[in-house]
Structures are given as structure tokens and as C-alpha cells.
Amino acid sequence: MNAPQKLTLKDFSTDQEVRWCPGCGDYAILKTIQKLMPEIDTPKENTVFVSGIGCSSRFPYYMETYGFHTIHGRAPSIATGVKLANPELDVWVVTGDGDGLSIGGNHMMHVLRRNVDLQILLFNNEIYGLTKGQYSPTSKVGTKSPSTPDGSVDMPLRPARFALGAGARFVARTIDTEAKHMTPVLKRAHAHKGASFVEIYQNCPVYNDGIFDYIKDKKSAADSRLLLEHGAPLLFGEGQQKGLRLNLKSLQLEVVALGQDGVTLDDIVVHDETNLVLAQMLAGLSAPEFPEAIGVLYCQASESYEHSVYEQIKTVRAKKGIADFNEVLKQGHTWTVS
Amino acid sequence: MSVVEKVSEQLEQDPTVSAVVVRFAGDSGDGMQLTGSNFTEATALHGNDLATFPDFPAEIRAPAGATFGVSAFQIYFGSDEVTTAGDDVDVLVAMNPAALITNLKDLLPGGLIIADADAFTDKNLVRAGYQSNPLEDGSLDGFRVIIIEITKQVIASVEPYGLSHKFAVRCKNMWTLGLVMWLFDRDRSVTIENLEKKFASKPEIAQANIAALNAGHSYAETAELPSGVEVYRIPRAEVKPGLYRNATGTESLAYGLIAGGRLAEVPLTFASYPITPASSLLHTLAQHKEFDVVTFQAEDEIAAVCAAIGASFGGTLGITSSSGPGISLKGEAISLACATELPLVIVNTQRGGPSTGMPTKTEQSDLNQALFGRHADTTLPVIASSTPADCFDVAIESVRLATQFSTPVLLLSDGYLANASEPWLVPDLTQYEPFPVKFETEPEGFSPANRDPETLARVWAKPGTPGLEHRIGGIEKSYTTGDISYDPDNHQKMTDVRKAKVDNIENFIPEQTVSQGTATGKLALVGWGSTFGAIHQAVKRGRAQGQDVSHIHIRYLLPFPKNLGELLAGYDEILVPEMNTGQLVNVLRSKFLIDAKQLNKVSGQPFKIREITEAITKLLGESA
Fold first, then answer.
1. Which of A38, B147, B452, B482 could in theory staple to A7 by disulfide, Cβ–Cβ 3.0 to 4.6 A?
2. Are both B3-221 and B245-431 of the same fold?
3. Is the pLDDT of residue A337 over 90?
4. Which H/E stretch holds residue B189?
């Protein structure tokens, strides 16, 4: 084989015309990931993108790697099969809020609890785009859509909270247009052994435009986002003057202002990404009452599923020895007819 | 006169008796399946040909004494060729009133009943629906009855082992087995070995069961039955020489899949979700991890088939397995495998339906589903196994078709084949022609749309191969580049080529043969799947009586062997016996424009030979 050449973004772009709507957040995500790929030390031929159905699931067609655009909701299961066939492959799952949490919610739950070594990117735009704008399981109550002309009445779920509830051992959140934030988060997700769940706030300019403006716009961003850093206090707001304190009576986080009512830095909760209880609290924070957590909410190393499967096979083989299948057929109670 | 004297008397009156049907029946917790399988093993070692039919309820432990909780195991064995589990029962072992009342109708007049008197309590009699005790009221006068207080005997025989009453009573199936083994001159040593193995960690339980087995045997042999009686001796069967073992359809199917993987030189990824009666395939394969098989119990049927498809994309052969309702759930994903032209094997162990239907009972009513049960034009090869031993070869064939033609393949088995066992001439894999998979490795001229000009199979290029990075998916693809294409002409062409690829398989499978009889004639019985044994025997009997009847059994249901139409045209009449309301018969009618007749049964039970014999006689009588 030739000596490895330094690859660039171009090496990960296909000749296919990208078919998302103009202004779609997916363009920014695609660019960030194409740029990230050369920085990850995985051979291109070992990289696989698997997706389900929906706008986000067109993603693999634009990545010059192996790719499989599958059926609605089933990408986690297909990806599990790919990893079971060849654990050496570096498998990314691209899904959306409808694909991954509605029709495919069951598979998402199980791939996370099983801890298959995948990077699962859930593009959350809180709407069904490809089917022309119906509300989704993450749409806020009151979302007006063709199927809910008077506003949706059912409670949405928070993807990060769902992932933690399902037993995910890596949960992060990032924003479509913020490559500087997304890149290190995805690197962390990639480095994590096991299922890494990354929720990406993604704007749909056609059916749900501007739903994440509160956290993206410079004016409101400081108050509505909580940038997580392991070992750093949970501070936010202009000049990092606000923070989150644990109310010991209600066992909930509360917003406090540094310097007011005697609040000091010592009162502020320090982020510990190995703390599941904290991660669950952070995942549930919603603007405008709270800032929303951005970054790595939870990361706990543990064995991946397919690794354990192959370890077990190794053990069985070591115990049984290399058997001749023809001989195995003759095992058990046999008799000879002459 | 003692019962056994009567048995020998019957033997003297009818010296041609060369085969016997024994049915063990009891509560689902009585261990009847274990009893039956041990008796089967001993019978196989004895050298008789045999076939078995385990028939058990869906309830794991139904309330004791309930009629719906009766579990039965039937074995037909003899010195002649045996291909079904038998029509009528010669010997019925009834462990309680419910077992007696539900099975008595199948017992031949004058047949033998062995009953546990201790279980015929007032409570059990009422629960079974008896007004009075049939062991005492004369209602069994048309049969021969051995009434033994089995429970009391068992408790006495295991007393030295200090078991609790509950565990002591559980040994009564082994006591009864010992008695039946004496009656038919079976060797107990295999059962003893099995018990020692099964209860290796509980030696006192093993010893108690062995003691019960021996006690039942001695009871029959010594003081307890009158003297001057002969053991029921059945000569060895004339069978093909070689090494034999007993195998259920599930076992030989599992071994066949492994063998197929080895002949294809490709590892297997088996993904499935528990469902009766298909789960045992997962269990069997999970025990053979040393043979390049990864097994995966998925969260649901859809995840199972999808993991198998992902595994095929990843460079192994994905296999999934289920029964009818589960196959329905897999439908969308199977069409994805058709669209992406990935190899995949789908095993359907059919059961009584629709919906939950009768999970533990057999039926062959998923043929329509296999042939047509998906959205859009998704043609895929469908093959069916006909006997427990045939499952081995059919499984290999499913792997060959899937890997050589880059297509999902549906393999139809059923609940009867899965659980029934028969002596299996152990195959020698070195005698099978390998069909190694050729993964693409050459980047020059590569396109994921490339096809083998002869088989039309799409190229298999697995991730991890440098220079072959490509995308596949469910969206229609360009015939030339494999890129997304909505071009009208291209869709026509792709639909045509997917169909042509499957149709073309007819050139790579054997021509249809006549399994018994002549290539032309008055009547041909055309079957598929597990009806083989009953049709075979009925045709054999008919031919012995001079009837012009032949038997054709179809393994390849899609595409059909290319000579099938011509072959069927050579008979005046075609009769298609099926355990459904008429599925193959409709396909034959529409494909070959023939007036095929049908014979159908959907009771959850296999055909009796007699039922087919009657249909033959009726048809030949009418057309003569």
C-alpha cells in the first residue's frame, strides 16, 4: 500500500449534488464533519455512515466513505449489524428527531443501553421536514403544523434526557452552525468506546425556522446557553456572572447571580461529566427559565457491546479448541448401520 | 389376561405388524417431551426407522390437570421406512385424566392404555370433564388398559435419595419410560447417560431419576406383570448404511447454515428475536460460536432483520429467523435488502395463524407471504425443506443462492419440521461442492452497480476495502453508476433486472424430479414442505395397490425448476395437498393454467396418511 497521504475535506466529499433546501443547517454540519474526517486517524475505507430516513439521513450520499441510507428509524439496528460483522469499522449513525426518536425510538433505546461502539448524531430540528412539516416528538407544545393546525398538545421529549435514561454512556449537545464547538465534541464522541449520542440543534429554514435563535443569536446566547467544561463551574450570562447552584431542599438546580445575596463561586456546581445525576439535571434544563447545556453532558467509559461479544467468542474458542465441523456433526449419540 | 399377553396375542394374530405408534401424554409440567426424546434416542439406537411429533401447548405450565395443558409426544417406529409420525396410536401413555380424554380419540380400537391410577383423583376427573372414573366405569372396554399406581411406585423407588415429595413425584415420567422401554425392548443406557449429564450438578436428582427408570423397567419385567409374556420386538429397519444420529429439523437447519457459511467461506451473523417455534434455531446457533457464527438477540423482529442486513453490508452473511407474524414485521427491511441487492437468508418456521394463532402448532400458510408479502415488486427466491434431515441441504442451498445471486432468500420450514426428529445420515461436508464468495477488491472500474454478467449478481464490496468506498440505499439507483436516480427509464430497467436476476436462478438449480412414481400418468400429488412424509406414504400405499399415482415434491418455490410446467402437463390430474387453504395450488393454476385440485387441512396437525389415501382413491375413482 502507498504511504498514507494527508487527506483533506475534498477527499471526503462525493460528486453528488447536495439536495437540502438552501439555508438548511445540515449544510453546516456536513462541512464540519467533512473537515473533521482528515483529523481523525481512521482510514477512509474503514469509515461507514449509516442513516435512516428523513432530511438528515441523506447525509451518507455526500460523504466519500462507505455509506448506507437505510429505512425509517432502523439505522441503529443496521449499524449494529455492521459492527457485529466487522468491529474494526468506524461507524457513524446520522438520524433526526422523527427517525431516531419516533419510528426508531425503540432501536435508539437499545443501541444506547447495549453500548454498541457507534457515533450517533441526532439532528434535532423539532419538525418532520421531508414529509412537509408535521410536528415531531421533540416539537414544543403548541407547534402548529399541517397535522396539528390548532397546535400540538402532546409533551415533547428531550433527546439528551432520553439517551441518559436509556443508559447511554456518552451524551453531548452541540449546534449546527458552530463548527468550533461541534468539532471537539465530535472528536470526543469518536474517541469514546461505546455508543456516543450527540444531539445537534439544527435549524429547518422551511418548516421550523428560527426555533434555536434564542441560543444562537449573539444577543440572547449568553443567557440561554451553558457551555460545559469538565471540572469548571456551571457559569453563564454576560461576563459569566450567573451560575447554577444546587438547591438542597428541592434537589434541583437554580439560577443564581454571583455577588448577589452572598453567592460566591464556591456555591456554583462544578461540572463532572462522570456524574449521571448531574447529567440528568443538565439535560432537562430549558430556556428561558434556564440556560441549556451545550457540550459533553456525560461521559463514562465502559466496554462496548461488540467488544464483549468477540471476547466471549474468543473464550469459547479457547475452551473448545479449533473444532472440525465435520466431526461436530458426528457428535452426540450416533449409530452405524452397515 | 395381562395386557402384555394381549399385545403378544395381537402380534400373533397379525404377524405383519412391523411398526408401532406410541404417544406419551401428560401435563405440560410432566416432562413428556423429555420422556419422548429419550425414548426416541433409544429407538434410533435400536435400529428402527422412526419419526416423531412433539405436540405441546403454548402455556409453559398450564394449571395441573387442565385439558388445554396437555403435552404429548408421539413416535412412530418400525422395521419399514417411516416418514410420518403415524396416523393412529397403538400405545397411549396417559399420565392423568386430561391426557386420556384429549388423546383417546386417536387410539386404535384395542389399543393399549397405560394410566397412572394415582392421577385419576376426583379433582382431576372433574377438571378433565369426566362424570365418572373411566378406569373403573367400563368406558374403556374397547381398549386394553394397564392401570398402575405410578405415583406411589415412584415415591417408593426414589425414597433412598431423600427428595422432597415434589421432586420425587417429578420422577414419574422416568418410571413410566422405564416401563415402556421394557415393553419395546429398548436399551436404557443412553437415557441413564443423558440423566447424568442433565443433572450433573445435582447428582441426587440424577440418581433418583435413574432409580425411577430402572424401577419402572423392573416392575414390568419381574413380579408385577404376569408371567409368560413376551416383549414387543420390532425388527431393525432396512436403511442406507452409514453413520446416523437423531436430529430435529432445527438442529439440521442450524448445522446446514453453518455448513453453508463454510462452503461460501463467509462468516455468519445470525440475528433474531424470540418467537415460537423459531427460537430454537437461535439457541442452537448460539452454542456454536466456534464456527464463525455471531448470534444476536435483537430488541425486536425489525431490529433483527436490519442487523442481519447491516451484517451483510459489513461483509458477513446476515441471517434472520422468525415465524409468520415476525416475518410480517420484517417485510419492509426485506424489501430494502431486495433494493440494495444484499445477500440475506430469512428463515420462516411457520405456525398456525393468523396473528398469534396457534404458536406451537404447525401449518404451511405463509407461502403467500413468502411469495408476495412485501410492498412493490420485490421478487426473491423461496425454498422449502421437506423433512427434518432435508433442512440441512436446504439451509446450504439458501446460503448458496443468497451469496451467489446477491439476494435475500426465504427459507420455509414449519413447526412440525422444527420439533420433529428422525434418524439423520450424518453428512460429510467434504462431499459438498464449495461456492466461495468473491468479494470485490479492485478499485479500477469499480462501481457498486457492477454485475456478474452470468448471474446478474451485484458486486459485493465490503467496507474496509481501500478504494471501493461507495454508498447504497433504498432510493432507486442508476443501473450504470449506482447513484440516486429518478429517471423513468432507469426505474423500469432496474425493476426488470432485479426480477431477471431471480428468474435466472432457474438455470442454476436442479430440474424437478418425480420423487416416487412415473414422469407421466393419471395422477400426480404435488406437495411442498413438511407434507412430504404423509404424501410419500400415501402414494407408496396407492402404488402398492396398483393405483397410477406419483409424487412430486417442490423444493424451489420461486423460481420454479424450469421443467416443472412441462412435467405437470404429463398427468391427467394434479392434486396439491397443503396445510393451508390452497396457496401453492393457486400459484400452479395461475402460472401453468392447469386445473389442479386441492386437498387442504388447517387443524394445526400434520396430514394423516389416510386422509391423503382417501383423496387419491376419490380422485382416481372419479377420473377412471
1. A38
2. no
3. no
4. helix B189-198
Neighbours of B265 (CB within 10 A): 14
How far CA A330 is from CA of B49, B177, B243, B245, in Å, comes to 19, 26, 8, 7
What pLDDT, on a 0 to 100 scale, did the predictor assign at position B1? Answer: 38
The CATH topology of domain A9-211 is: Rossmann fold (3.40.50)
Provide the residue ranges of all domains of chain A, joining segments of one domain with +. 9-211
Please state the separation of Cα A119 from the chain's center in Å.
6
Under CATH, which number does the domain B521-623 receive? 3.40.50.920
Residue A228 · residue A294 · CB < 8 Å: yes
Nearest residue on chain A to B260, judged by CA atoms? A325
What phi and psi, each to the nearest 5 degrees, are found at residue B190?
-65, -40
β-strand partners of A261: none
Query: Is the Cβ–Cβ distance between A25 and A202 less than 8 Å?
Result: yes
Number of H helices, E strands in chain A: 11, 14
Residue numbers in A near B471 (CB within 8 A): 14, 60-61, 63, 66-69
Q: With an 8 Å Cβ cutoff, is A30 touching chain B? A: no
B164-171: long-range pairs with CB below 8 Å, 24+: B167/B205, B167/B208, B168/B208, B170/B31, B171/B208, B171/B209, B171/B211, B171/B212
User: Dmax of chain A from CA atoms?
Assistant: 98
Q: How many beta carbons lie within 10 A of that of residue B189, not counting itself?
A: 10
pLDDT digits (tens, 9 = 90+) for B220-247: 887 555 433 456 777 888 888 999 988 8
**CATH annotation of B245-431:** 3.40.50.970
Instruction: Over range B205-213, report the average pLDDT.
Output: 95
Q: Is the dihedral of CA A60, A61, A67, A68 positive or negative?
A: positive
Is B245's Cβ below 8 Å from some Cβ in A?
Answer: yes
% of chain A exceeding 70 in pLDDT:
99
> What are the grid coordinates assigned to B613, written together?
389415501
Chain-chain contact of B469 with A88 (C-beta, under 8 angstroms): no
Beta strands in B165-206 (DSSP E): none
Provide the CATH topology of domain B3-221: Pyruvate-ferredoxin Oxidoreductase; domain 3 (3.40.920)
Residues 6+ apart with CB under 8 A from B343: B312, B317, B318, B402, B403, B405, B406, B407, B408, B409, B460
Inspect the interface and report whether the beta carbons of A81 and B190 lie closer than 8 Å. no
Name the percent of chain B lying above pLDDT 70. Answer: 95
Cell for A163? 439517551
ipTM of the complex: 0.97
B509-527 confidence digits (pLDDT tens):
999 999 999 999 999 999 9
DSSP state for residue A323 in the 8-state scheme: -
pLDDT confidence of residue B624 = 45
Q: How many CB atoms lie within 10 A of CB B570?
A: 13
Instruction: Report which of B471, B566, B458, B474 is spatially closest to residue B512, judged by C-alpha positions.
Output: B566
> Does any CB of chain B come closer than 8 Å to the CB of residue A112?
no
Q: Indicate the domain borders of chain B.
A: 3-221, 245-431, 521-623
Identity at B324, one-letter amino acid code: G
> Touching check for B296 and chain A: CB below 8 Å?
yes
Q: Phi/psi at B52 (nearest 5 deg)? A: -125, 160
Residue found under cell 436476476? B501
Residues of B in contact with A12 (CB under 8 A): none
Q: Which one-letter DSSP state was computed for residue A102?
A: I
Contacts of A14 (CB under 8 A, 6+ apart): A61, A62, A63, A64, B471
Determine how β-strand B382-384 pairs with β-strand B521-527. unpaired
pLDDT for position B223: 57
Residues of B in contact with A83 (CB under 8 A): 310, 314
User: Best interface-test mutation with A: which of B46, B299, B396, B468 has the largest number of A CBs within 10 A?
Assistant: B299
